[in-house]
Amino acid sequence: xxxxxxxxxxxxxxxxxxxxxxxxxxxxxxxxxxxxxxxxxxxxxxxxxxxxxxxxxxxxxxxxxxxxxxxxxxxxxxxxxxxxxxxxxxxxxxxxxxxxxxxxxxxxxxxxxxxxxxxxxxxxxxxxxxxxxxxxxxxxxxxxxxxxxxxxxxxxxxxxxxxxxxxxxxxxxxxxxxxxxxxxxxxxxxxxxxxxxxxxxxxxxxxxxxxxxxxxxxxxxxxxxxxxxxxxxxxxxxxxxxxxxxxxxxxxxxxxxxxxxxxxxxxxxxxxxxxxxxxxxxxxxxxxxxxxxxxxxxxxxxxxxxxxxxxxxxxxxxxxxxxxxxxxxxxxxxxxxxxxxxxxx
Amino acid sequence: xxxxxxxxxxxxxxxxxxxxxxxxxxxxxxxxxxxxxxxxxxxxxxxxxxxxxxxxxxxxxxxxxxxxxxxxxxxxxxxxxxxxxxxxxxxxxxxxxxxxxxxxxxxxxxxxxxxxxxxxxxxxxxxxxxxxxxxxxxxxxxxxxxxxxxxxxxxxxxxxxxxxxxxxxxxxxxxxxxxxxxxxxxxxxxxxxxxxxxxxxxxxxxxxxxxxxxxxxxxxxxxxxxxxxxxxxxxxxxxxxxxxxxxxxxxxxxxxxxxxxxxxxxxxxxxxxxxxxxxxxxxxxxxxxxxxxxxxxxxxxxxxxxxxxxxxxxxxxxxxxxxxxxxxxxxxxxxxxxxxxxxxxxxxxxxxxxxxxxxxxxxxxxxxxxxxxxxxxxxxxxxxxxxxxx
Lengths: 345, 390
What we know:
By secondary structure, chain A is mainly alpha-helical. Chain A has helices spanning 11-45, 61-71, 82-100, 117-125, 128-138, 142-173, 178-187, 205-218, 243-268, 282-308, 316-344, and strands spanning 2-4, 7-9.
């Protein structure tokens, strides 16, 4: 028997509830992000209205799009490796959903509270490379292969600055567990003032910047979108996909954006918690927490998309240069300084 | 194109690959990448066969002809008035500019001269089609490099220019407005004032593009030093227009060989850039749009009064003879060589379009660059498929 929000449930019951609740939350958030940013925000940036016909202000457009994709023929190219080709989107999507498992949305609202939470997130997010390489190779298409190899090089290169940026936070919080990191920010104090806690963005702003740049690259969004670069590789590793399999890539792209934004808001912006000095009970935070973390995550996704629609893209070698020569040294220096100050204060 | 010639092309490329001067540190098996005819970077149906080593191009060969419409041949069975309909569709973004050199050549053969008012309005519309054409380039360059926002601004502001062209000619894309001896109609009322307001909008657009795209570090990183064309090579390949001027060649037919247009009457400047790279080509075109707005403002202030049509016979028979007229079109030098035998139709019409020469440099230019730079270089050379294939 396990307890979930005060209810005594069998293990399978609580697991089912957690998974279903997680799935619904993720899909709702992802859909909201797609509508808000991909349909509307970018349209206003580009002096157009975006979808206006399906539902009020086009709010049901996404359903129409999903319906369209479901109807489309699921095409395999003749030379493609059918099994791998079919599995690749599933691998990418599962990597995305696995990330959400440890992201806390309240004192009790977490699917699995792992001791090595942040380590686990970074590990499963790297799994998507596997799916992308599978897609590129199995498509039997030169553009797809080039896109997949670019993605492989890029995602691996940007894992490193991301991990190093996170290390600064881990040193500050003294734990890899995401709940502990949230608590450390809620109970922390700045020069003895505990009114706003100590969100790590104040002390780890360098790590935050490095993390967000690395997120941009991990998500393969412009200016780091050469794996899908539509004007040169047409659509990179996605080029041969259509119908429901393309839909899976689409969901995974935006769900991963939400996942990374949720991780960033947990690590740097205080996550679900309000400062401990405000004295709110766990019961209240279980209701307010999800709203807080979702708001923060959606705002961070906004930053990602704002950047995406403002910049041209780098070239592959320039991207690698940025990772290895700029971001990694900065992240290492940040770790060193964090450790020194941690000992000093 | 048959399979046989395709294979010959590939063999040709493979042979060239052997002696390409490329630093290869890591020996890997090459790959032939077929870019186009349906590819977003080729603005239509240009095809480029590239031999790659990793992401580096060893040799590349452009293959044109997928959109050949045989205008030179069709023109031989069309009357002179009908030919303008055809040539409108050569460079479809700046259509009016295509009509002008043909009409000028026909006028020269007939020894007719358009009245001054017609000449000024021709020049006005010529520059407006330059703006309509180059604005799209300024936005499209962003799309090719991955920034999708500028192109929407480009389409938005291009619409104002097209509206003005439509008010005069009745056609947004294919005006078919030029006649031997003048123009079809006079300007509508209030058009000149509205045009000046539109020019203000175009200037604002240029500033926006300068901030949003040209000022971006990523854009500079992607374009500076990419696809450098030295002036002597540019001349050898017959580049013209902004591509030549970006290599520092101070040559503009509007200033250096102006025939039948009102350019000598206005104060303007030919912009050149010493670098010859993709950034220089973008910069020169941006300045040309700005300069075109200045030209239009001045022309709009001083349009002379009078008729817009000279006296020409109802049935146009062009006396026997040959004439060559070329003008500085948005894409570069465009010329028509008209041979007449005194008939209702041209005996032979040779069209020299700028894009054909401008893309002929690609095998030289693409050797040794990376795949993403193919896109940068093609975008910065700026060709229109109709202008290559005719």
